[in-house]
């Protein structure tokens, strides 16, 4: 659920491209505004210089022709040739008084810029700055020619130029974002294939492989993914093989130990019972006071032999291949119920279609059930243990699977299936048969063990596990 709340990579990259594009447009707009301001000041400086030279020529002409009544200054000719909207031209006498002044009207096409732009533009560029050139006659400055642009007109023209860039940005930026998003969606389309491959691998499907991609980066990811899948498949196969061998070694050790106990310890106990019986007969004739001790020895030997029989039964299970899995498990459950002092804590339900299982599957299931029931018998916290074993037809290719359910009513953390051998050993046996195991505990009491094993096993597995 949280993955859907995270921003999409395509959207994030598109927003970054939009932000960078906006910054570029802003930089271009700032550049054009700076260049426009510089161009304006260059132009009005040239106009002020032209006006100053014109006024100097007028003054010299007055002196040459000795006509002091001629009008001075006369900026009509200069104003007529250079006048533009918002341009102001004036002559300022030496005492600071403006003698003559011309100003062009504002253009009606520029409109009124926003107040925020007006404030920012005036703070950055100071529109309306004057350009002055001194008017000198025979080395004496008689005044200066002044030219400037009306601040309102200059600001309006700057907004007009910037507005065109903003309009271009408003048109180009959404189109650019759409194109970038489409290109990214096309380029990142293989990530869905990569995600599907990872999900398959997460579900233990190590046959998942990624196809080659056009982009070099994605191709590198695909190669690493395929190499990892192959390594995992090989590693799990080797691990399963090692697990099968360990199980075989464990079963062989159990059989060897059972033979040793039966041949050595069992015979010794039988001999002790025989000697106790002989001593009982001798004591009955010669020393009756020794009869209780002889009976005690005989009872102790008998109890030890019963314990030995139970240990041998757990170490060396019956031949499942000859008796069948159902008969073997029924005998196992009946044995535990018989030793539970009249309290039937074990119940079992079997599917009648379990008689034709391979020996490896039958032996593995028997060992799993044996471990679970042994743990249940050792921990009295579970008052009832239910076992259910069924065969089901899988949906794919008509394969059959064996499902085992073991449920108990023990306390959480002290359940029948978690004690003793624990889940680790059971998982190893299930993994050796190519199955899967799940374990769930109840909120208050009880736990459920669910094992699913394919009914058909590879021949090498059967040979190893036999």
- Strands, count: 9
Unreliable stretches: 415-420, 458-466
Rounded mean pLDDT is 79
Instruction: Estimate the helix proportion, in percent.
Output: 55-70%
* Principal-axes shape call: rod-shaped
Radius of gyration: 51 Å
InterPro entries: HAMP_dom, HATPase_C_sf, HATPase_dom, Sensor_HK_TwoCompSys, Sig_transdc_His_kin_sub3_dim/P
Keywords: Kinase, Membrane, Phosphoprotein, Transferase, Transmembrane, Transmembrane helix, Two-component regulatory system
Domain HAMP: 185-237
Protein name: HAMP domain-containing protein
Could you give the topology of this structure?
Elements: H1 2-5, H2 9-65, H3 76-82, E1 87-93, E2 98-103, H4 115-125, E3 131-137, E4 140-149, H5 151-187, H6 190-202, H7 216-286, H8 291-315, H9 320-323, H10 325-338, E5 346-350, H11 359-378, E6 385-393, E7 400-408, H12 422-432, E8 436-441, E9 447-454, H13 459-465
Parallel strand pairs: 5-6
Antiparallel strand pairs: 1-2, 1-4, 3-4, 6-7, 7-9, 8-9
Helix pairs in contact: 2-5, 4-5, 7-8, 7-12, 10-11, 11-12, 11-13
